[in-house]
Amino acid sequence: HTTVSVTVSGPARDLIALDFSRPPVLVPMGGEALPNDTTVFLNRNWFRVPGLDGVVVETIRPEAVRLTFDRDIERHVPLSAPTYGELPDSISLTGPPEVIPATALVIGPATQLEDVDSVMLIAINLAGVTGADTISQRVDTAGFSEFQVLPEEALVLFPVEPTEEREVPDLTLVLPRMASDPQLQTRPTEVTVVVFGAGSLLERLDLSNIRAFIPATAATLPPGGEERVLVSVDGVPASLRYRVEPESVTLRRPVGQ
């Protein structure tokens, strides 16, 4: 839209009401084909104030406005299903949620549609997923007022299985190497890593690749220093979760050799 200034006269009561309603200047298009860029001279009759018959339009500034038209195009763009929260402990995902259909047809102004790379559904709370659910979810139309999006809702399939666990006991903690002696020590020196998730993913997991370690940031501990630090783990893919028992250990650096 374009902003213009309208000067009016009339009874004070009508002018006060007009100040609150602030009606638009409506430019009639007449259904005729117009060039992409056109200049329209504004008619005072286009400023309509229903119920305020005493109001007289004196001037409209500017007297003309330039209108730019954009052609409508259509594109298929991917549909995505954002989520929040956590699944119930009893089930785990075997893969990402599947959106059906995978794409949406978006119709709108060409210059704006060029910047649209995906369409999101309204975010889904994972806590409400109870099994191999297929959930119908509406398209999030925020920011899409200029477009028509089809379909207006889609199905989201959550591939889940019962949660299982695998235990990796007695893992010796890997410690960062100090530039000079004495070296770091921990109490205890071993931890247990419990990996949990979908059973089919756990079957393909190579437990020998799992490593428990103390981050290199701990290599600043001075001789005689001691602190409680969290244990880090690698070798567990993002599709699985884990916990460490205990989750933290006492890190110390003795004095002298």
Short description:
With 257 residues, the protein is mostly beta strands.
How are the secondary structure elements laid out?
Layout: E1 5-9, H1 12-21, E2 37-41, E3 56-61, E4 64-68, E5 72-80, E6 83-84, E7 91-93, E8 98-100, E9 103-109, H2 110-113, E10 119-120, E11 124-125, E12 134-138, E13 148-150, E14 153-157, E15 160-172, E16 185-187, E17 190-198, H3 199-203, E18 211-213, E19 226-230, E20 232-234, E21 241-245, E22 248-252
Provide the descriptors you would attach to this structure in a database record.
257 residues; mainly beta; 4-stranded mixed β-sheet; 4-stranded antiparallel β-sheet; 3 helices; elongated
Structure explained in plain terms:
The protein is mainly beta. Helices cover 7% and strands 42% of the residues. The chain has three helices and 22 strands. The strands form eight sheets. The chain has a four-stranded mixed beta sheet with strand order 10-5-9-13. Strands 7-15-17-21 form a four-stranded antiparallel beta sheet. The longest helix is centred in the first third of the chain and has 10 residues, at 12-21. The model has no long low-confidence stretch (mean pLDDT 88).
| Strands side by side in the biggest sheet | 10-5-9-13
Beta percentage is 35-45%
Number of strands: 22
Cα(first) to Cα(last) distance is 78 Å
Regions with little confidence, pLDDT below 50 for 5+ residues: none
Helix content: under 10%
Largest sheet: 4 strands, mixed
Describe the global form: elongated
Number of helices: 3
Structural class: mainly beta
The Rg value, from CA coordinates, equals 33 Å
Strand and helix order: EHEEEEEEEEHEEEEEEEEHEEEEE
What integer is the average pLDDT?
88
